[in-house]
Amino acid sequence: MSSPDTALASIQARIATAAARAHRDPAEIRLVAVSKKNPPEKIRELFDQGQTVFGESRVQEALPKIPLLPASAEWHFIGHLQTNKVRKALPHFTLFHGVDNIDVATQMDRIAADLDLRPRVCLEVNVSGENTKFGFSPDALRAAWDQILALPRLQVAGLMTMAPYDDNPENARPFFAALRTLRDELATSAVPLHDLSMGMSGDFEAAIAEGATIVRIGSALFGERLA
Q: Is the predicted pLDDT of residue 3 greater than 80, yes or no?
């Protein structure tokens, strides 16, 4: 495997190339280094090379790590958030990518009021309809939209999805395009839904072509993780 600095430089170059092909500014695209199942030492190596945003998917794994990294590191929660973990998680993450049902959204809003926080969230949409994935269906999100926007503490930053695994990343593009179309349908001047969190190590270039503003990359930066 390449060293953390060359891996990061390679991913940054690929993001820039994909953005140029799509006639986009690379500065529009944020890289979240998916650090779950990686020890603090490996995360620190990447931080020292200039990567400052990291993604974790388990509250119990993330909380011991966060104090071991510099305070300027930014942490995103990218997994399914259980309602009984909301109170512990809210103070530590600047963006929650996987808010995938109305119960979690309502619980986050209630606890955020208790803690005097205003969490930023991306609502997860199961565009592909796969039974193995969490997320609102597009129709369920449309039906719940007014209820979500009525939650006073939640700041809805955008939408998130995961495309089905495919050896050919171009086959992911219709799913990314569907999320962008849904975002365009729901966005308003008051709630612009700027963020589209989509694209991982195997398909992030296809996601950038379809409008991703956040890509979540783990194995291409850290190497394959143990299960």
A: no
CA dihedral sign of residues 164, 96, 194, 46: negative
Average pLDDT over the chain reads 95
| C-alpha span between 109 and 87 (Å, rounded) | 10
Rounded (to 5) percent helix, strand, coil in the chain:
45, 15, 35
Residue at 154: amino acid letter:
L
Q: Let me know: does 154 contact 121? Beta carbons within 8 Å.
A: yes
The dihedral sign for the CA sequence 28, 39, 223, 131: negative
Is there a contact between 43 and 65 (Cβ–Cβ < 8 Å)?
A: yes
Q: What is the pTM of this model?
A: 0.95
Residue 1 pLDDT class (50, 70, 90 cuts): very low
Cα torsion 33, 108, 152, 136: sign: positive
Nearest alpha carbon to residue 163 among 153, 151, 176: 176
75-91: per-residue pLDDT in tens? Answer: 999 999 999 999 999 99
Domains with residue ranges and CATH for the chain: 4-222 (3.20.20.10)
